[in-house]
Write the structure tokens for this entry.
Amino acid sequence: MTRRGWAALAVLVTSAVSGLSLGNALYIYIALLMALVFAYAFATCLWARLTAWCGQRLSSASVPRGEKVTLRVGAEHRCPLPVSGMRGVFLYNGQEQECLFPASPFRAQERRLPMDARHVGIYETGLKGLSVSDLFGLFRFRVPIRDSATLTVLPRPFDVDKPRMILGDEGNAALARTQEDYNAPDDVRAYRTGDAMKRIHWKLSSRKRELLVRRFETPAPPDTLILLDCDTPRGGEGVNEGEACLRDAMCETAVAVARMQMEDGSPVRLPMYGKQANEFSSDHAEGLALLQEMLAAQPFGGGEDFARVLNLELRRMRRTGAAVIITTRLDAQVVEGVTHIRRMGPSARLYLVTYTPEAPEYQPYVARLQHHLVEVCYVTPA
């Protein structure tokens, strides 16, 4: 029952008590009229509630950041008597808005609600509440919502420079070294002019009565290790939606670097040490969609401290050709962790995601990183 319903009930009770105590027929008629109104309002509202139906559907369950998506919401009731319109509340990105459906019975009413995919993440969206009310506004019943809608906003990659592999070794030297490893034979093939004599498999050649040459395992190219700071982004204070924009920029930088490497068939590893611990590993461009979904599902905040993450990942440096570090914080601990990675052999590039790339407190740390041959790049959120 609404506030108006409680007020009308008070009028009904007052009129009935006054009519019975004073014997005045006018009060009795008012009480009877209010009782009829109450009965009609309750009956029609309950009828509409029991026959109500609603449904919702997104035009796309996942879209890149910056695009639009349309939410289609439909509602219907089958009460032939006049009732008020149906009122719905839909939710997107933590904000609630209302939409009204006309009271026409036996006819599905549809609303198309445009939404902007502003920030990377997974959002519960769509119709969260639907209510039907009588013509007088005395009663309001909620209609259960059976369908749900979840929108996944994916990071949109941009163009970046290709990370350099180990200085003096773009993978070819490692390949040559492995091909010269005679302890790792993979198969044999027929002798070709120019093959080294020490590669000939003499025992098998004498048995087959033809010269056969050992073939050796082809090594995998060195990994590109992407270390993403999954803690709460820093530096967005005082900027409208600053923290969300910093998160978008970090995710899109990671996707951009991974896409650049995987297009060439280079293996990429991206461990995530946030609240939802996970790891991405692929060397095919088809894996980019999976990485986008994993980043969208990652709740930035909590997890391991990023300086500790840099130290934990030192164990991967033997197979790493290039390390890409993406963070919003630059302090002594982070600089020390990055320089340790660089000393282990791989090339290192640090992406600092910030609104103030020229801040004076960053300059000593940047100079120290550049002294250790670490490439420093700045990313400013859109």
Notes: The radius of gyration is 34 Å.
